[in-house]
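Quick start: read one record
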Amino acid sequence: MRYWSNPPHEAVEDTRSSLEKLKSPDLNLYFVFDHEGTVIGLGGIHTGTEIGFILHPDHWGLGFAGEAISAVIDHVWATTDLPQITADADPRNLRSVGLLTRLGFRVTGFARDTFCVGGEWSDSVYFALPRPGAS
């Protein structure tokens, strides 16, 4: 949760409430990732064109995030007319930055002190992935 935009929830009910909000018809491009019947993460388009994702640390480095986000991207291109998908990551989050880069996202900018979570400021690196075939 170090690189997430809010601190860890203090109670299960807080997490449940957040997940309920993700079921909104307005967020029909957000998905729960499961493996063998266990929820291991979630991700999708959460605001405008911005993609986000989180994966439980027990599943890091196993290819699950790449597989899941690739499927989300394919779904976005197949079901929307979005011209691009964007992302915002803490540049210290090397795994997320690496995943976005491997998926074809390109850096479009940087900003300092964009989030303050738990008293710690973080910077942002911004990415964009244009729709295939778009100029």
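The chain has one domain: 12-130.
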